[in-house]
Amino acid sequence: MGTKERRERQRRMLRQEILNAARELFAKEGYDNVSMRKIAEKIDYSPTTIYLHFKDKAELLRCICDETFENLLEIMRSLKNSCDDPVVCLRKALRAYIEFGLSHPNHYKVAFIVHPGYLEDLDHYTRESSKGRQAFEELMSKVVECIQQGRFLKLDAKMVSQGLWAGIHGITSLLIVHRDYPWVDRNDLIDHVVDTMLRGLEAEPERFD
To answer: For the stretch 145-184, what's the b/e string if a residue is b when 16 or more beta carbons lie within 10 angstroms of its beta carbon?
Structure first.
């Protein structure tokens, strides 16, 4: 590895270290309570070093959210040809979303729960090229297939998709934020929530195996 390549690798590693530190602090203390100086102190660098990689705290937040949405999009796309039954495929996608959030609670908390900048920077997250919008459209494409094949009632696909997202976001957030609540078996609860939502949409309700 040459000097140029080594420096570029070190630059990428430091950038990722900054993102990891910021994500952890945002999730633990809240976006408003974290300064660039506090992030720098966590990784033993000066704030000036962070500003060489990120313009400000808002850009850090956007990069963290984009990283989360991109990971979620990859998971959604990986399920595209995983089964022939569209309802089963959609069920897998909903469950994969929940499991992603539970496996990466800091990613999920920062992107979907704790930060206030989402609505202020809505254009960034809803434009056609954004990973967040693409992840949602990947979910909606599975809903459209269920409707087109007559498996779901003929409802508005965007409304159905947003309703499903609201449901899985709700259980994901609750399981992350209220970890000490005496929940029933986690997998049983997730299955119950997902299956109840899907059965309510089916043109001819049937049991899941």
So the answer is: bbbeeebbeeeebeebbeebbebbbebbbebbeeeeeeee
